[in-house]
Amino acid sequence: LSQMKKEPALPSRLVKQIFAHYAKMSVAKDSFKIVEKCLDVYFKQLSNDLEAFAGHAKRKIVDATDLELLMRRQGLVTNKMPLHVLIERHLPLEYRKLLIPVAMSGNKVIPKK
Amino acid sequence: MTLERLKAAVHYTAGCLCQEVAEDKEIEFSKQTIAAISDITFSQCEIFAKDLEMFARHAKRSTINTEDVKLLARRSQSLLKYITQKSEELASSNQKQKEKKKKKNEGESKGRSSEAQVQPMMADSEELDT
Q: B71 at the A interface (CB within 8 A)?
């Protein structure tokens, strides 16, 4: 009874959809395997970096500032391209609502900072 | 004007270092090569300065310290090893200096407040005006 535990990964359909969307051309089937391998490496690297950044700020919990710092070092977030702009460009509305504070009626800001 | 002077200083140092390597490996560097190396060094310094600033601010500090430098070199294993070793050497030499000062201060009886640690590694990275 040796049940091999599958490593957690993004659903391959999702990966295919996203990759094909940005590639804007047809992609051979076997190339998706490589994309998934790259994703695996990417997440490993990402978690190492986030751990280092959180530890640097003497925290044990990764928070939004760590992620922003990571994206700055990746060159995604710059002075010309703030994080909020990236969020607005690439995330669906429901997630945008969670991340970007919006002033509502009755002197409320959602989400609370 | 300061930028030009800084570039000239970097160029000169790059020349000296290249000369050392040339003598060691018995090869020659053309002038263009040295100029290119000094240019690369200068632009790399800009990147380093910005990153160090970010790391220090991330830890809610306004002073860059050795931890930030280690975080900068984290990606390459050998470099990290080297820098950690160097920082340990610096720390130990600082401690020795402190002990010497303490002994001197005890001799003088009037103990002044201990001076803030000056880290020579950090001195030039903070003077970069971009």
A: yes
CB contact under 8 A, A57 and B60: yes
Q: Does B73 touch chain A (CB under 8 A)?
A: no
- Tens of pLDDT along A1-49? 556 677 788 898 999 999 999 998 888 889 999 999 999 999 999 999 9
- Spatial distance between the Cα atoms of B49 and B47, rounded to a whole number of angstroms: 5
Global pTM reads 0.74
Task: Sketch the domain layout of chain B as residue ranges.
Answer: 3-106
Distance from CA of B58 to the nearest CA of A (A): 6
User: What is B3-106's CATH number, 1.20.120.910, 3.40.630.30, 1.10.20.10, 3.40.50.12160?
Assistant: 1.10.20.10
Q: Which residues contact B41 (CB under 8 A, 6 or more apart)?
A: B10, B14
Chain A residues lying within 8 Å of B55, measured CB to CB = 56, 69
State both tokens at B37: 């190396």
